[in-house]
């Protein structure tokens, strides 16, 4: 009996999505199967089976993989997927993957259907008074649209005060953010290539 025959369809679909997400993360880091396998002390064959959805990794293996990719474990888990015909193209509000927490002052929801593709789209919510204390520099091009609230962005050493309706873009430049307002700031954020 094959692995597919042993597992219910929903479980098989979840394993396939997990494998595809892990493959997308590896590729976004420009790493080979061999490099990742060596880093997590596993075989290339094992990793290949994980990425193809043929094998389920143990939680300890997932922890090593997300540590290597520098993403939170929660990124790999989501609510139950929407209707099967939609899963590759549509993300319903109730099915978004969420990162961060209100306690941290920053929550992102993945609006893209998966971690593959040339770019990712997020809905980011910045709590009133929250800030990113140190600049971040990523090898990406990023753009955003302020849906509501205020957000100050420091791009390449210069602060910009943004309000609802404003937008921004930068490419491989250090940036920081802070919400000087008294209400959360909501931003639609696009990142290319994908980082999660």
Describe this structure in words.
This protein is globular. 26% of the residues lie in helices and 28% in strands. The chain has 196 residues and is α+β, with helices and mostly antiparallel strands. It starts with a helix and ends with a strand. It has a six-stranded antiparallel β-sheet with strand order 1-2-3-9-4-7, with no helix packed on it. A three-stranded antiparallel β-sheet has the order 6-5-8, with no helix packed on it. It has helices at residues 3-6, 9-28, 33-39, 44-51, 59-69; strands at 97-101, 106-110, 120-126, 141-148, 150-155, 158-163, 167-171, 175-178, 185-192.
What layout of secondary structure does this protein have?
Elements (H helix, E strand, L loop, with lengths): L2 H4 L2 H20 L4 H7 L4 H8 L7 H11 L27 E5 L4 E5 L9 E7 L14 E8 L1 E6 L2 E6 L3 E5 L3 E4 L6 E8 L4
Antiparallel strand pairs: 1-2, 2-3, 3-9, 4-7, 4-9, 5-6, 5-8
Helix pairs in contact: 3-4
Task: Provide tags for this entry.
26% helix; 3-stranded antiparallel sheet; alpha+beta; 196 residues; 5 helices
H/E element sequence: HHHHHEEEEEEEEE
* DSSP, total strands: 9
Per DSSP, the total helix count is: 5
Determine the mean pLDDT: 85
Strand content: 25-35%
Q: Could you name the ranges where pLDDT drops below 50 across 5 or more consecutive residues?
A: 1-8
Which structural category fits the helices and strands? Answer: alpha+beta
- Measured between the Cα atoms of the first and last residue, the distance is 35 Å
- Assign an overall shape: globular
Helix proportion of residues, in percent?
25-40%
Report strand order across the widest sheet: 1-2-3-9-4-7
Taking all Cα atoms into account, the compactness measure Rg is 18 Å
Question: Sheet bearing the most strands, described?
Answer: 6 strands, antiparallel
């Amino acid at each position: 009996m094959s692995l597919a025959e042993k597992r219910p369809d929903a479980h098989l679909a979840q394993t396939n999505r997990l494998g595809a997400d892990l493959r997308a993360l590896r590729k976004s880091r420009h790493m080979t199967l061999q490099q990742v396998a060596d880093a997590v002390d596993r075989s290339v064959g094992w990793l290949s089976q994980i990425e193809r959805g043929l094998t389920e990794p143990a939680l300890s293996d997932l922890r090593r993989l997300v540590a290597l990719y520098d993403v939170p474990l929660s990124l790999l888990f989501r609510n139950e997927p929407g209707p099967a015909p939609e899963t590759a193209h549509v993300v319903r509000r109730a099915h978004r993957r969420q990162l961060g927490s209100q306690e941290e002052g920053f929550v992102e929801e993945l609006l893209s259907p998966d971690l593959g593709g040339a770019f990712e789209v997020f809905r980011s919510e910045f709590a009133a008074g929250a800030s990113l204390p140190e600049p971040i520099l990523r090898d990406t091009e990023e753009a955003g649209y302020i849906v509501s609230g205020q957000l100050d962005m420091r791009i390449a050493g210069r602060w910009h005060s943004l309000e609802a309706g404003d937008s921004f873009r930068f490419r491989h430049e250090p940036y920081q953010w802070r919400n000087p307002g008294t209400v959360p700031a909501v931003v639609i954020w696009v990142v290319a290539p994908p980082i999660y």
